[in-house]
């Protein structure tokens, strides 16, 4: 350990102490410093009434045996009660966007393409062809057949296409009006979405305004 590098940082919080353990150093060096601070440099401030301790491991992955070693060292101070030992590597990733699947080809009359998740299709969907997805559907080509997004009930899904003139659109359980009733002359770079229980059509450039935070997810 260098003079200006500390592997163990102890910080007071409302209900006790947080021990932050460096996640980049050698494991043995970390334990040595932890023991040194408990026995030497910090023993006076850690002496007294019962103190609740939360141990943060950062991105370090620790086995049950590793955690037991931490408990054993901290437990030498009888007044320190470990409430938790947490590693960010063990935490489930929150609000992670599902990956976007990229497929290409032509969906001809009588053919159906089904996908679980968001789908980017590079090609045309011909009249009589069907494309379905539990997530959103992005067609980089002409959508002249039927498209059904949010098949599992996701009414936040959208259907977008370079050329949008389908025989029918569905999002969750909502079915669109025929394209000749949309009141939109152009068919290029448009998308369909649900608003107030009704399917609406707008230019793709307005997606961020209508669905804040929306966008094409990361592809796989």
Automatic annotation (TrEMBL):
Keywords: Cell cycle, Cell division, Septation. Residues 103-201 form the Septum formation inhibitor MinC C-terminal domain. InterPro entries: CAP/MinC_C (IPR016098), MinC (IPR013033), MinC_C_sf (IPR036145), MinC_N_1 (IPR055219), Septum_form_inhib_MinC_C (IPR005526). Residues 8-85 form the Septum site-determining protein MinC N-terminal domain. The keyword Cell division applies. Pfam families: MinC_C, MinC_N_1. Belongs to the MinC family. Cell division inhibitor that blocks the formation of polar Z ring septums. Rapidly oscillates between the poles of the cell to destabilize FtsZ filaments that have formed before they mature into polar Z rings. Prevents FtsZ polymerization. Interacts with MinD and FtsZ. This is Probable septum site-determining protein MinC. It comes from Paenibacillus chartarius.
């Amino acid at each position: 350990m260098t003079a200006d590098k500390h592997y163990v940082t102890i910080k007071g919080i409302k209900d006790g102490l947080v021990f932050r353990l460096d996640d980049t150093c050698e494991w043995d060096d970390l334990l040595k410093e932890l023991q040194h601070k408990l026995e030497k440099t910090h023993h006076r401030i850690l002496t007294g009434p019962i103190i609740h301790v939360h141990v943060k491991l950062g991105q370090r992955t620790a086995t049950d045996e590793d955690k037991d070693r931490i408990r054993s060292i901290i437990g030498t101070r009888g007044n320190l009660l470990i409430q938790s030992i947490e590693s960010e590597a063990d935490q489930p990733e929150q609000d992670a966007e599902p990956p976007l699947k990229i497929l290409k080809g032509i969906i001809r009359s009588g053919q159906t393409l089904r996908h679980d998740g968001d789908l980017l299709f590079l090609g045309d969907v011909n009249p009589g062809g069907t494309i379905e997805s539990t997530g959103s559907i992005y067609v980089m080509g002409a959508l002249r057949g039927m498209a059904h997004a949010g098949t599992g009930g996701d009414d936040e899904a959208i259907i977008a296409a370079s050329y949008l003139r389908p025989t029918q659109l569905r999002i969750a359980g909502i079915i669109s009006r025929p394209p000749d009733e949309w009141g939109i002359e152009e068919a290029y770079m448009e998308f369909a979405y649900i608003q107030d229980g009704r399917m609406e059509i707008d230019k793709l450039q307005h997606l961020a305004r209508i669905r804040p935070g929306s966008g094409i997810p990361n592809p796989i």
